Amino acid sequence: MASSGAQPRPAHVKQQKDTLVNYHYLCAALQQKYEIRHCAPCQCEFEGCNKNMLDFSSYTAYKLRPVELRTLPNENGTIDTEDLKKLHEALKNRPFHAGSEGLLSYVQDRDGILFSVIMAYNGPGGTCGDKKWDRVFDRMKAKGYKQRAVPCMYFATKQGCVVDKCPYSHKNKASLRLRAEVLLARRQILFEPTPKQYLADFKKRMKNEGWDAKALQQFMREMAMKELNPDHETLPNDVSAPRAHGYCARLACVKPYLFAMEKAPLQQCSRCKWTYYCSEACQRKDWSRHKGECAPEEEVITNNKLWSYFGLRLGTNIQNLKV
C-alpha cells in the first residue's frame, strides 16, 4: 500500500541541500551580488511598516530567492557599533539555536540578520562586528569562495555531518571543541538505559502496580521531553523518573540493575562491552537484534550515521512508536 504522506528526506540529502543553499547565499552576500528593493507597506499592526527585500538576481551561480531585510546600513554604508552588537545578540539568542550549527546556519534566520551583518562587513568599516567571522569572510575571499574555506554547518551538531566526502571544513577550532563535547555526550548516552528499555520496564511496572493508561501517557510525555531536551528534569516522584543503572538489553526481559542494588545482576557483552544482559540465555535470544549494532565503543560514538538529529542513538527512541 502506498504511503499517504511524503517521506522525510534522508539525513545526508537534507544536509547537502540545506548547506549548499546557505553556502550560495553567503557567497552572494560577500560578493555583493544583491540589490535592496523597497516594497509597499506591509499589512501588519505597525503603521508605516515597509519591507526591504534583498534581491540576489545578479548572482548567477545558483538561483536564490529574495530575503527580507529588517536592518539597513546607514547612507554611508556603515552600521553603528551598538546596532551590530544587537544584531549578533539576536542571532545567538534565536529560538532553537544550539550554538553548534556553524556560520552557515545563520542564513536561515527569517529577519535576514546575517545579511545586515555582512553588509556592515562590505561597508567602509570592513568588519561584521565579530572578528572570528571577519577571518572566515577574509579567508573565503582569499580562496576564491571555495567551499573548503567555510566551516561545515553540521560537523559540531548532535547528529554530526553525515555527508560522505563533505566539501566543507571540519577543522574550525570552535567546531572541533563543540565536536569533542558531542562525542563526550554520546559516550555517556551509550552506557545509559535506552528509551525503549525504559518503556519496556515501565509497561511491566504498569501491569504489576495496576497503573492505568494515564500513567502511560504521562510517561510518554516525559520521555518525549527528554528526547528533545536531555537536560529536562524529572521530579523524583514522577512515574517516569529513572530507577535503575541499566537493564538487560533483551526487551522481553529488561531485568533492572536498580539503584538500590549493591551488586549488578548484569554482565556486559564481551564484544562491544556497552550492552548488558542478565544471562547467556537472554544474550543468545537477543543476538538477532544486537548483532547489527554490536561494535566497539569508539566506532559507535564516532559514526554520525548511527545518531539522530537530537543526539540519540538511532533505533533506541520511542517517538512515533505505537504503545
Automatic annotation (TrEMBL):
Single annotated GO MF: zinc ion binding
InterPro entries named in the record: Znf_MYND
Keyword line: Metal-binding, Zinc, Zinc-finger
Domain MYND-type: 245-294
Highest taxon above the source species: Eukaryota
Coiled-coil residue windows: none
Name the record gives this protein: MYND-type domain-containing protein
Naturally occurring in which organism (per UniProt): Schizopora paradoxa
Lineage: Eukaryota, Fungi, Dikarya, Basidiomycota, Agaricomycotina
